[in-house]
Amino acid sequence: MNIGLITVRGEDYHPNYRLIEAAREKGHRAALIHPYRIWPTVKTDALGLSPKPDPMPDVVLPRQGATLGDTCLSLIRHFDLMGIPVINGADAIRLSKDKFLTAQTLSAVGIPVPETILVNTPEGFRHAVSQLGGLPVVAKQISSRQGNGVMLITTEAEIHSMVETQLDRRTGLLVQRFIPPGRRREIRILMVGKKPVGAMELSPNPGDFRANFHLTGKSKKVDLEPLVESLAVRASDTIGLDIAGIDVMIDQQEGPYVIEVNYSPGFKGLEAATGVDVARHVVQYVWERIQPSSNHT
Predict the structure, then answer these.
(1) Taking the CB of residue 51, how many other CB atoms lie within 10 A of it?
(2) What pLDDT, on the 0 to 100 scale, is given for residue 146?
(3) Is 102 helix (H, G, I), strand (E, B) or coil?
(4) How far apart are CA 195 and CA 97, in angstroms?
(5) Contact between residue 117 and residue 174 where contact means Cβ atoms under 8 Å apart
(6) Residue 23 lies in a domain
(7) Total structural domains in the chain?
(8) Can you list the alpha helix ranges (DSSP code H) found in 148-242?
(9) This prediction's pTM
(10) How far apart are CA 122 and CA 127, in angstroms?
(11) For residue 86, what are the domain limits?
(12) Please, are residues 170 and 187 in contact by the beta-carbon 8 Å criterion?
């Protein structure tokens, strides 16, 4: 089996070298596909790629992250239309890379999410603050990764700075009620085949409110409560992701919320905290998924 990993990062990037290593151990091959060095082509009677990958992948795993652009989504869809299985697909990725569309979709089927207001003007931002009970609030970019683009707003001056420098009418900002670290726990669940293979608890650094492994370097293994596991399974299924990182915040006063669904989760912290070989689980799942349609081994 030849696995194509769509990514702008190199082989030394943790998820990439772990997936390459796990594929090799199983007798397969994983190779990087840079989305800015290969281009989809359309002819009268055929779809193609230029230059053509050698070998052509039997299956593609998009790994570019939440900040991927429309051309990368077009490339992902192109592979799918060429009959090459893509895990995860373009529609699910488009949904999950947009934090508001994700929250909107989950809420519509009854999955609890934090109260969120999408704003696109300074007046809308101040209205959201009022609706959420006043400052502080959390402001988030629609698409961001590794804790970037997430800001705690505590003063009127910070509101002014935010709307002047970060608010784009075309994309908007999310505004959410702030839940202090002492009142919450944050859990990352790694889903493969829409089933949890491991979970870790994350804590913010002193003086920060963001609990993200890329910011703190800290994680610890956690056993999932049935309700939290059920929310993770439902969230990945609702968004349509076979492989996902589901972030759940457990508010001590109000219960759990799904706060993020990541289509291309890193897993360095989770492997370190749990000892789970995530890359092996991914490669095995991909192999099982393509069996009915693959002519290669």
Answers:
(1) 8
(2) 54
(3) helix
(4) 21
(5) yes
(6) yes
(7) 3
(8) 156-165, 213-216, 226-239
(9) 0.91
(10) 9
(11) 2-91+281-290
(12) no
Q: What CATH number has the domain bearing residue 163?
A: 3.30.1490.20
CATH number reported for the structural domain that contains residue 80 in this entry: 3.40.50.20
pLDDT at res. 37: 96
Same-domain pairing of 35 and 21: yes
| Count of C-beta atoms within a 10 Å radius of residue 76 | 23
What letters, b where the CB count within 10 A reaches 16 and e where it falls short, cover 149-178? bbbebeeeebbeebbeeebeeeebbbbbbb
Kind and range of the H or E run holding 280: helix 278-290
* Residue 67: how many other CB atoms lie within 10 Å: 15
- In Å, how far are 80, 130, 144, 204 from 123, measured between CA atoms? 42, 11, 23, 31
| Contacts within 8 Å (CB) and 24+ apart, 146-150 | 146/212, 146/214, 146/215, 146/266, 147/210, 147/212, 147/214, 147/215, 150/210
- Per-run averaged pLDDT (10 residues), the chain, 297 residues: 96 96 97 96 94 94 86 96 96 95 98 96 96 95 74 94 92 92 90 95 68 62 95 98 96 94 93 95 96 53
